[in-house]
Each structure stands twice: as C-alpha cells, then as structure tokens.
Amino acid sequence: MRYMIETERSDLFDVSIVIAMRVHIKGNVNEDGLRSAFEEATKAYEILSCRVVLEEDGTAYYENENFEGQKEGNPVTSSNSQKCRNNKMFFEESSWRQILKREEKIRFKIEEREFLKAFCYEMNEEGCSIIFLMHHLGGDGKSLVYFIESFMKALSGEKLEYSNIRLISAGPLDDKSQRDRLGPLAFVPKYYNKKWNKDERKKSFNYSDMDKAYENYWKEHESTINEYIIKPEKVNMMLGKCKEWNIGFTAYITTAFLRRLGRKADVGYAVDYRKDGNRCMSNQATGISIKYAYNYNKSFQGNAIKVQKLMTKKLEDDQSKEFILPFMASFEPTLVDAINLEHAGSFRSKTSKSLATILGYGKKTKDMSVTNLTKLDIPEEYGEYKLDFFSFIPPVISYGKNIFGISTLGDCTVLTLHRIKKV
Fold first, then answer.
1. How far apart, in whole angstroms, are the C-alpha atoms of residue 251 and residue 292?
2. Which pairing describes strands 368-375 and 265-272: parallel, antiparallel, or unpaired?
3. 365 and 380 in contact (C-beta within 8 Å)?
4. Pairing state of beta strands 2-4 and 60-63?
5. What percentage of residues in the chain have a pLDDT greater than 90?
6. Please, is 320 exposed, middle or buried when counting C-beta atoms within 10 Å of its C-beta (0-12, 13-18, 19+)?
C-alpha cells in the first residue's frame, strides 16, 4: 500500500522538524510496563509501520509493505509489531533539555520506519517524566496528543483500536484547478517550476543529501527553549478578558508578543484540518497568516480585537484557510526539497535561492508562528494513572523564527517559545 506525499512535502527535507511533548505521569510505574505500553501504542497507528520511500525521479510516498488490512476501529493485533520496532522508548537520567538538544540534531530514519522516540528521564515512587519526540511526517501536534492518549490507555491495561492513515490530498494540479484555487498567485508555482526545469543544478535528492544537510546545519546552530507554566488564576484572568472582548486566547497571546516586538510582523498559525474530527496519526494541519503592527495609540484591548478580526477573516474564508496546501503542492517536489536544503546551507541554485527568499526560507522568515492545541481533548486520568503535566514544543520549521506552542490539560496551561540561533 502506497500513500503519496503531497501537501506535507515541505516536511521531508526540513532539518528542524521534531515535534516534542513532555508529560508527567502520576502513579506507580516501571520500565517494563512503560515499554510495553509504548510498543502497544505504536501498533495502533498504521503510519508508524510505514517507511518513506524516495524514488530517483523525486517521487516520495509512505509505503506499508505486506499490508494486512487491519481496519479502522478494530482491535489492534500483533501482526505489525515487527514493522513498528524502530519506534522506541529509552530510559536515561539526562534532563529533558539535554535530550531534546541532542536528539533534534539527529535525523529520524524515516526510510526505516522511525518516526517516534520517547525518553523516560525521571522515575520515582510517585511517577515518571517522559519526553516524546516525533518527526512531522509521523503526524501533526494533535497526532502526538492522540498517541500519548493511546500510550496511557495501554499503560492502564485498556485495549486499543487500530487507526489507518488519512492524508490531505493536494487535489488536481492542472492549470485550471490551480487558477481556481490559487487565484492571482497561480503564476508563482508555474513560473518557478519552469525555471527549475531549466536550471542546470536541478536534481532529485536522496537520503544522503538529507544527512549532509543535517550535518551542515546543526554544526553551527542550536535551539533554545523557554517554557512558561501559566498559573490557573492568571489563565482565568486572561480568559475573562478574552470573553469580555470576544476574542480567542491565541489572539491575546499574539497581541502580547506584538506589543513587545514594536514593529509590523508576519505571524503564522497552524490550523487543524480534521474536518471529520478523526484521531488518526498523520499531518492534517494547514495554516494561515496575518501581518500586523501593534498600535501604541490604542489600548491592548483595541489591538487584540484587531488581531482577532484579521485571524477570523482568514479562518472563515475556506480559500484562505486551504490556500497553503495546494500552493506548496503545486511546486515541483524536488524544488520544495531544494528550498529546504537552501535553508540548511547544503545546496545552492539560482531558482531555489530565489524561491526560498520569497517564501520565507531565507534570512527573512516569519516573525512568529503559533500552534495552540487549546484544551486537549484527552482525559487526565487512566485507571490508576494520571497525566498531571503536559508541555508542547513545536519545531522551528525552516520558515519560522519565534515558535510558540500552547496546550492545556486540566488546569495545567503551558506556553513554550522555541528558537534556533547560530553558534
């Protein structure tokens, strides 16, 4: 069984693409139980038994060899346990910051079905702390949330149900369809595809090129993470203002950042694209963006309302909300790979450099990107175990600079800021 990589192609050669979540589990746990629960949860998701294949012509797809036809919602069987074996859980005594700083520089072997790692870095009689790391091709933020839910269910002895892959299709990419969906910007991919096909440096890239990109990029970069645990009383205060002003929490956080930035900023937002509310593991996110400069002649409230209006306008416009998916899929796949390698500093061509610059993969990236998972739609308690801490750390994607992750589980709200700097 093959699943073509289309709308998520930009994740393939990105050298900073690890989604991280860390949790604390309250309850009496042990290594064997944790490892067994992790292995059971990996078997519940088809995507974790796939490998990513890169053909010589640049075609890329997920491949589930010897697909045995497990159906959505059926009990998980052990038949695909061997194919999930490269997704592993580890136990060590390093801090979560040390683990993330080390592991984000190591390429996931997605060609060998490695999408997910978990590190238990603290354990005592009261519980344990775990950091989960996932390649974005293994899924989006919600995917990892749902994996953690399955892990907790398995830990408590609950039987899991199987979940198939669901990918977002790019749809038809003919000229008429592009004009209909992309409007006046339909000429951009058409123009750059033509340039790329004539570029003497055009090539199809492979996993060796990916390895070189990781080595080249991370030898002179490192990430920094600020984590803010927002007290429940402060969250309630902010939510009260949000309700009074008729705005969302994301708009409030955005406005606070813009007030400190002091200039016009390009702000991106990840948006869940699960129209049917499925809980599968795969990348089912799209994105919108706004541009705004904080107006110091207005109150914070006035600025926040304006930010919300800009966001709402995009969110209520299906064409705006869905634009980025067919737009990026309209470029030659190898050209999308090339702009990521431009960002990593391991490939150069006139075409990819020009496109990387206009798409924000160069020096001028988005000023701020926000992923708010809101109040997580998973339980806190699982039998004798409880998730009493949850933190979400999104990746600093090639076109991002200040990456905010927000999540709330119970009365635990955590905001993280992830950046990458040169060393």
1. 12
2. parallel
3. no
4. antiparallel
5. 82
6. middle
